[in-house]
Design brief:
Structural class: alpha/beta
Mean pLDDT: 89
Number of strands: 8
Oligomer: single chain
Length: 306
């Protein structure tokens, strides 16, 4: 009997595997239900689970330059956290603890299992809170320009300026921007390279933030009251391997917050990214992707600037 059909079948199978490998990094939009509410997310890749957690007012699309590169090595989930993006927005008293509990249930609903968490800004706070309160679902964490712990009269870790300063009040207003001018001003704070703030970006980000305006307000109120916050002792107890990435010129979250986190989390690694503001995953995407990949695969993350 000729072996050619079997050879052709093997070749066809190999071609299908190759095609699958080539296309598996393309993100697919999906939804799951948690506590009766819809959570929207983008999924791509294979391998160890990796969840990307956006900042205040963002959504999973905020990770557009990162999903496909990281999906070459990991099973990536870019979540619209509850109250944001295309996920449902219950009229609730939002705080970090709520977002963390929804994240834990999301991991179950999406069959992600124990995962690495990569968070920016508010998302870093959610990742850190989850590592403290739900360590059984956390493999490693990457904290990008966010996360911290209560610091008494000194204010919240990583926040530029005092809690009652005029600059802080102005930033709080801009965080919940409702006009193009406010949105442009806010994103010029977020980016070190101001030329990245284009009219198209302003329109897209304003629309995104308006959809989550209630959630943003409640998260701001919770922050002022200390709801969903962590103590220094809790953060010192984090066992998950931790990488701290911070933009050297972050105007929203003081880079001193990276130093405090590094001192508090035993064995953590800190990288300060040069020529970068509050959003290293966007402003320095290639470097950010390399740092995350190296850390998650080997535990190493070499700094180009400290």
């Amino acid at each position: 009997m000729s072996k050619r059909p079997f050879a052709l079948a093997a070749l066809a199978g190999a071609a299908a595997v190759t095609l699958s490998a080539q296309t598996s990094t393309k993100p697919l939009a999906k939804d799951v239900t948690v506590l009766g509410f819809r959570l929207h997310y983008l999924e791509a890749g294979r391998g160890a689970p990796l969840v990307l957690l956006h900042g205040l007012g963002g959504d999973g699309s905020r990770w557009a330059p990162n999903i496909e590169p990281l999906a070459r090595d990991f099973h990536v989930f870019a979540l619209d956290q509850i109250g944001f993006g295309q996920s449902d927005k219950p009229l609730a008293n939002y705080h970090t603890g709520m977002l963390a509990e929804f994240l834990v249930d999301f991991l179950k609903a999406a069959n992600a299992g124990r995962a690495a968490l990569v968070g920016n800004s508010m998302g870093a706070g959610v990742a850190l809170y989850t590592a403290v309160h739900f360590p059984q679902v956390v493999d490693k964490i990457v904290l990008a320009d966010g996360g911290g712990f209560r610091a008494g009269e000194a204010g919240r870790a990583g926040t530029a300026g005092g809690a009652g300063s005029a600059d802080a009040a102005r930033r709080r207003q801009l965080q919940n921007s409702v006009t193009r001018d406010e949105t442009r001003d806010f994103f010029r704070i977020l980016f070190h390279n101001k030329s990245l703030v284009t009219d198209k970006m302003v329109d897209e980000q304003l629309a995104m933030r308006l959809r989550s305006a209630f959630t943003i307000t409640k998260m701001q109120e919770a922050g002022e009251k200390g709801l969903g916050s962590l103590t220094e002792a809790e953060v010192r107890g984090v066992k998950a391997p931790t990488l701290i990435v911070w933009g050297k010129y972050d105007e929203l979250a003081n880079p001193a917050g990276a130093d405090r986190l590094e001192k508090a989390i035993q064995g953590s690694k800190k990288v300060i990214v040069d020529d970068c503001g509050h959003l290293p995953q966007l402003e320095k995407a290639d470097e950010f992707n390399r740092l995350v990949r190296d850390f998650l695969k080997t535990g190493a993350a070499k700094a180009t600037e400290r």
